Each structure stands twice: as structure tokens, then as C-alpha cells.
Amino acid sequence: MKATNDIYKQSFSFPSGTVQCLFDISFDEQFPSPTVIITDENVFAFHQNKFSNTKTIVIPAGEEAKTQATVDYIINQLIDLEISKEDTLLGVGGGVVSDLAGYAAAIYKRGMKLQLMPTTLLGMIDAGLGGKNGVNVGRYKNMVGTIYQPEKIWFCYDFLSTLPVHEWRSGMAEMIKHACIADEQMFDMLEKIQLEDIMGDFKKLNELVQRNVKIKMNIVEQDELDKSDRHLLNFGHTFGHAIEKLLGITHGSAISIGMVCACRVSEKLIGLHSSATQRVLNLLEHYLLPLEANTNSEELFELLVKDKKRVGDDIHFVLLPQIGQAKTEIIPLSYLHQNIKEILR
Amino acid sequence: MKATNDIYKQSFSFPSGTVQCLFDISFDEQFPSPTVIITDENVFAFHQNKFSNTKTIVIPAGEEAKTQATVDYIINQLIDLEISKEDTLLGVGGGVVSDLAGYAAAIYKRGMKLQLMPTTLLGMIDAGLGGKNGVNVGRYKNMVGTIYQPEKIWFCYDFLSTLPVHEWRSGMAEMIKHACIADEQMFDMLEKIQLEDIMGDFKKLNELVQRNVKIKMNIVEQDELDKSDRHLLNFGHTFGHAIEKLLGITHGSAISIGMVCACRVSEKLIGLHSSATQRVLNLLEHYLLPLEANTNSEELFELLVKDKKRVGDDIHFVLLPQIGQAKTEIIPLSYLHQNIKEILR
């Protein structure tokens, strides 16, 4: 049993205010009491008792719920519940919940108070951090949204006890991404441990989550509006997003393959050492993440052309000069087209 | 004929960037060329030739268009036109167009470049300034939206040559509001001239528009997120909004009556001199604005209770200690209830 003052906090600053991260909070004793909660039907089914004293809006689970129709539903619920802009909305769930809760809070009465409680490893180290929110429009992902920071992010590891192993792997893909772009020491560390070590040891998990939160939030602090440094977080995501769309595999799996592609491009274009690429491949494999996809390279290229980071005939692409460092370069789409078979191998 | 460098500019600063106001631009020679324009069917019908070289999204005219359905339409058009977030969207129209264009720009790809060109006096001195945008949800006004500043605001007085006289009066109501809360000298000036002097003299108009832009933008610079000083701009709007809703009269007429009510409350609560109230009444009458409404005071009070600025049993209310100065006080709703007949008189 822990006292409330045991909570370890980290604060990050933005022009719009401060985001406070509260780590390793106790499910039973430190669960917050906001005015209204948004969660999905899966989280609600598992943890109904946590929400019994708070007005709760339950949305369907899964990416299909990330639409304007769900936002309309949430807004109407907030109106019916007579929620004011001074009230606090807490989003409890994975990336879909934080995207929808964040977006609804950003637009309701032109912005109400927001807090988030990610319930997946991916949410804790990536999706729930940085303020990006939004919904899909038809087949276009995150076509509409804002960047709106929560006042607090609660990290409650108890939720992870029911997290499926493929969800753990999705989180590990983004953790390896952070290691690749900004933290060689963590890369070394991840080589020496196993997924089971993290899943079974909340102290180790807490250490890693805090480290990853710091990496991502420090980058976002430098470039909240995603005009320069924040692009580095897209390492592996150019090919990754296209593969995810084409094959319908999990985000983590797609990003894993995308990082392999980005390492190969880095070898060719800025001389990343082939042994470094091999280390990245080995680390991804170590966490049972896929290294290649059986895709039609022409169809894949068609999707690359539609990437948000495309500018005319070129594309902003994140490259690794070495493990623990990243840079963005503008490369011609024609280069990717000519070499796509070798990049995908 | 003017050279482009004749344009008089004023800049205002926000955490998110700078807003540049460009005054008295020439309809024929200095009309901007953005990537895409949003306008309403009325403005489009009158000025079609201005838009012939630019992708233009035309929306229905009037407050009924201020809905999520229109936003969905705009977003789908932006997607179909393959607009990127680096492209510039220009909203040309009155308050409804600036609210919709601003909102669509704020959420499309998490924020694209925005410029505004207000075509009404009200738009030029109030609705088009300060970044507030949004749509109505059912009978709730501006229930959803953001605060998102345009990069540029173009002031092109040629549009006003077709503005109906009741629209001029609506603009004058907000101009008198600015005089009441922040500019006694302008109050004196408005007492000495006639609406016809302003309508017939673009030099006088330009002087007044610039003065009003400065008053509003300086207040918004101090408090973009509407947590303190920006509340002062609500002078006359507590009763005004309720009267507008109840009687369906124009915003300007409702705010005129609302300012009369607010002067009477100011007399009672903070000792505004009765001669000052009389000067405000005279000035409103001078611009043919109404001073009283034939309303059911109980129905009106029911609407006051639903005001956004209500906090429990109290309401944030803007009072005048004297002409040219304003302050916000928290007053009990019961006080308004007990005195409502005398306030409405």
C-alpha cells in the first residue's frame, strides 16, 4: 500500500500550459475522480467498479469507432450531462479512446479540461502522449483533429495485467523506435532483457515507461506543432503506415517492418553501417516483431505517394546515421520507387 | 489606384504566432490569391469574378448553415481538392463564414494555414477577430469549436457597398460596446457623427475600423483563452444573448438592449452615474438601435440561467464603473431574478 505522496511526477511545458505525468499510481487508492470519463466497452466491462461513482460515456472499442459520428455522440452526451468547460474529462483507454477523448475535449465549448489514463503499453509510451488527437474520415486516417495537451496523464500499470501479448509487442515496436532515434543506452538495455522480464516486473516496466515518456515528451516540447523535430518520431512510419493500410496488420508489426525499410534506406543514402541495421533487425526479432511483409511493391508505392509528408515529387523521410540518432531528409519519391524491391526485400 | 505597399498593417502576437491585419485593401488590385476560398452563396453571387481563378467552396448563407453537417461538407471538399496543411484557406464572408472557415482550418489535418476577409462591419470589428470559431449543436450556439488565429485578416471596404443598413447597425452596436468598455474618446466621437457619415466616407470608416480592431485584438492578446480580461467583451451579451434567443431579433439589436440592461445593473451595484446610462441610451438611439424589448421576464430569466458564464447560483457579469471602463463581477442570479422587471423596464 502506498501513500498518495509516493507518486512520482514529471512535468513538461507547452505554450498552452503544463502536462503533468503521474507514474505507477495505485489502481485502488489513487484512481482519480474527474467530472466525466470516456472509455470503451472493453475497458468498461473489465473495470466497471472503477467508474461507478463517475458519469461515464462508453464508446465502442476499435479503430472503426474513430469517426465524427462517435464525436457527435460524445458531444451530445456532454451536453445532456450539463458538463461545463471548467469540468475535467478523463479518457481511460488505448489510442482510440485518447484520440476521441482528446478531440472531444479540445472542441467542446472551445476546449474543456482534459486528463488521460492510457491502458495499453503503446498508449503509455506513444499514443497517449503529445496532444495529437483526431478521427478518420472515410479511408483517410486522422484527417481531422487538433493538438491539445491534457493537464495530467495517469500511468496505472494494473491495466496491463489483462493486456494481450500482441499489444505488448506493439508497444515494444515504438519503444525500439525511441531507442533507435534518441537513446542508444536503452537500445543496449533492450538487447539484454526479454519481453517476459518487462511483463513480469512492474519496477522494470515503470523505469522503461518513464524513460520513453521523457524521450517523446522532450521532442514534442521542442516542436509541439510538428514542423521540425517532431518529424523524427515518424521513423519507420512512412513505409509502416503504407504496410499497415495495405495488409491490415497491427500498427506495431507494420512499424517494425517500416523501421527495417528505413534502416536499409539509411544504409544507402547516409551510410548507416550494415552491422547497425543487423542490430535493429535482431532486436525487433528478439521481441517477436516481423521483419518483412509479403506485399505487392507497386501497390505499396501507390500508398507512399499519398503520404502526408509528401511534398510534390519528394517526401520527408527519417533516416538513422547511427543507432540513437535520427535526422529528416527530403528524398525523391523516384528513388524509393526505383529501389522499392531491395528496400522491402 | 494604390500601390501594394500602400497597405497599412497592424500586427498582434499570440503564443501560436502573429496575426497581421491589412487595412483598406483594393478590391481590384490587392485581392489575395490563396489556395482555396470558403464563401457563402450570397457573397459568391455578388463577386463571382473574384473567385474565378481559385478553388472555391461555396456554403449556404445564414446561421442555419453553422452546423457539423456543413463542416463535414467542407472537409470532404478539402480532401477531394487534395489540399495540404501547408496550403492557405481564405474565408470570405460574414460571421458564419469566418466561424466555419476558421473551424475547418483548425481541424483539417490538425490545422492548416488560415486567412480571413470579413465582408460585414460586424465581421471587421468583432466576429472575424480573435480566433474564436465553431458551430451550433441543435439549439446550443457555438457549443463546439476552437480558438485558432488566422495568419492574416484582410479589410476590403468595397464589400460594404452592398451591405444592408440593418447590418451596419449591428456593427455599430459592437462599436458602441467597445467605446463603453475601453475608449471614452471614441464614445465622444460617435456622439458627434451620424451613421451616414461612416457609410459615406471610407476614410472615416477605415479610421474607426482600425481603432476597433486595436481595442478588440489588444484585449484578446492579453487573454486569448478567455479566462479573464476577454470576458469584458461580453458587456451587454448576458441579457443580449437571452433576448436574441427569445425574440429572434438581430444580434446587434439584442446586444443594444443588453447594454441598456447592463448599465442599469451597473447603476445599482457599482454606482454608474445615471447620466452615463442616459448617454449610452442616447448613443444607441442615435444609431437607431432599440433600447427595450417586449419580453416575458420569467422566460428571459430561464434563459439567463443557462448562460455559459453561470457558475452555480452566480453569474459572471460585465459592469461599467464609468464610460470607457469595464469590470467583471460575480453576481447572484437571485439578484437578477428579483430585479429583472426594473432592469428590462
Gyration radius of chain A, rounded: 20 Å
Number of helices of chain A: 13
As a percent range, the share of helical residues of chain A equals 40-55%
Order of helices and strands of chain A: EEEHEHEHEHEEEHHHHHHHHEEEH
How many β-strands of chain A, per DSSP?
Answer: 12
How much beta of chain A, percentage-wise? 15-25%
Oligomer: homodimer
| Structural class category of chain A | alpha/beta
Mean pLDDT of chain A: 94
Low-confidence stretches of chain A: none
* Biggest sheet strand line-up of chain A: 1-2-9-6-5-3-4
What overall geometry of chain A do the principal axes of the alpha carbons give?
globular
Largest interface: A-B, 31 and 31 residues
Distance between the termini of chain A: 52 Å
Largest sheet of chain A: 7 strands, mixed
Describe this structure in words.
2 copies of one chain form a homodimer. Chain A is of the alpha/beta class. Chain A contains 13 helices and 12 strands. In chain A, the strands form 3 sheets. The first copy, chain A, has a 7-stranded mixed β-sheet with strand order 1-2-9-6-5-3-4. In chain A, α4 packs parallel to α8 (202-222), α9 crosses α10 and α10 packs antiparallel against α11. Chain A is globular. The model of chain A has no long low-confidence stretch (mean pLDDT 94). Chain A binds chain B through residues 15-16, 68, 72, 75-76, 79, 84-86, 106-111, 132, 134, 137-138, 140, 142-147, 225-226, 308, 311, and chain B through 15-16, 68, 72, 75-76, 79, 84-86, 106-111, 132, 134, 137-138, 140, 142-147, 225-226, 308, 311.
